[in-house]
Input
Amino acid sequence: QLQASGGGWVQAGGSLRLSCAASGRAFSRYFVGWFRQAPGKERECVATINGSGNSIYYVDTVKGRFTISRDNAKNTVVLQMSRLTPEDTAVYYCAADPSAYQLQSGIRVDYWGQGTQVTVSS
Output
């Protein structure tokens, strides 16, 4: 199971830190990603990280502003978001799957966390 936390309200240019806590064993075998869905828009894969943390993907719109990291000893993945813009407003979800392809596609993903709202005001 995955538990997402850390969303909230922030002004444009500010920062937020999202955390995804996993329960169970073998966490390090899973790719973990953050997705977001804004009202009226499709769900988007924002960032993913592999089990060892040395392979990372970011969607172009967040490169240089968001950082994903993981601590396998604590079964957590963090998404540090900075220089936020109103376009980053969305419900953010974490997800985990043993397959990088399935994770990034968002299809038939093994685990989803509940969403956490991020609101950025201009």
About this structure: The mean pLDDT is 95. The first helix runs from residue 100 to 105. The longest strand covers residues 90-97. Residues 1 and 24 are 7 Å apart (CA to CA).
